[in-house]
Amino acid sequence: MTTEQFPVNRALEIIGGKWRPQLYCTLEDGPKRFLELHRSIPGISRKVLTDQLKELERLGMVERIEFDEAVLHVEYRLTDAAFTLQPAMKGLCAWGEGKI
Q: Which segments constitute the HTH hxlR-type domain (predicted)?
């Protein structure tokens, strides 16, 4: 069986894992720089954060924006596709809090 035959597998690939839900919630409020993300998610290493951001970028869920100003800086933000996950993420949060 392939991912196409079980769409839930695709969804879990995108939102699953220890850090991804926290990344989505942190970026939901707007773009963040790498260090802002790192400080917002206790326990995540820089390497894991970098790897997760690259993977979410590859999946089309996070966009990396480079600003070529006096000092080059980078921000990360959720894509429009990632925002379509909000109802599912809110449902999962409610379920995790025992509200469902």
A: 6-100
